[in-house]
Amino acid sequence: EIGDIKFKGFTGRYRPAQPGAVIGADGATLSGTFGARVTDNTDGKKVLLSCNHVLAEFDALPVGTEILQPSTGFGGASPDDVIGTLKRAVPMDFSPLGVNYVDAAIAKTNRKAVKTRPFCSAVKPGRQGAVGMLFAASSIMTIINPSDSIATLMNVTFPKTATAAIGMSIHACCAISGYVSTTISDVMVDLLLVAPNDNDVWFMDQVICAGGVADGFAGDSGAMFYTTYNV
Length: 231
Hints:
Layout: E1 22-25, E2 32-33, E3 36-40, E4 46-50, H1 52-55, E5 66-68, E6 82-89, E7 99-100, E8 105-109, E9 128-137, E10 141-146, H2 147-154, E11 156-157, E12 169-174, E13 178-183, E14 186-194, E15 200-210, H3 216-220, E16 224-230
Parallel strand pairs: 7-15
Antiparallel strand pairs: 1-2, 1-5, 3-4, 3-11, 4-8, 5-6, 6-8, 9-10, 9-16, 10-15, 12-13, 12-16, 14-15
C-alpha cells in the first residue's frame, strides 16, 4: 500500500563525517562518496580520498576548492557544510585515446569534522585490505580502480591493502546504495570509455565486478571496496 521502500544510503549531514557519506566540491554538479581516510606520503597528514570527478570535477576545480558534506546536490552549502579543501588530484587524460589508470583525488580535512571508521560496521579498514575504489558503474558492470595504482599515482598509504583476484569477495559503504557486497569477476582489464568531452579514452588495468552493484555517477563514485575477511 505504501509502495517500494528503498534504502537511501548516507545522504544526510553527519558530524563527524565518515567513509560512506555523500560529499562534493562546492559549486560542482557531481556528488560522490567519502571513500577512505589515507595518509598523504608527501607530508604524513591524514587526508580524505575520493574520485577526481567528485572532488575536482575532472580537473576543472583548483586546489583549495571547498569540499562539502553533504554535497550541493543533497543540500550542502558553504560555509556550514565545509569539511575540507581539495589538496591534489591525479590528472586525467581526456585527449583522443588518452590513457588513464585512476580517477582519484585527495582533500585536506578539518580534523574534528571526519573520522576513519565507515558507517557500515562490516567494513573495517584497519583489518580488511583495501582492494580498490569505485569510479564508474552500469547495470552490466562495476569498475574499480585498484588500490595499488591509487597508492602509487596518488602517493598515499592505506592502513591495509589486498591485491584483487578473480572470485574475491569484496564489500563497500556507498553514499547512495548503502552497504554493498559483490565478487570480482575480472582483473587487469583495459576499457575504452567515453569521457565527459565525448572523446574515447582508455582506463587501463581495472578491476571488474559483473552487474551494477552501485550507482556510477549518482553518488557512489569514490566508495572504497575492501576484502570481506581480515588480512
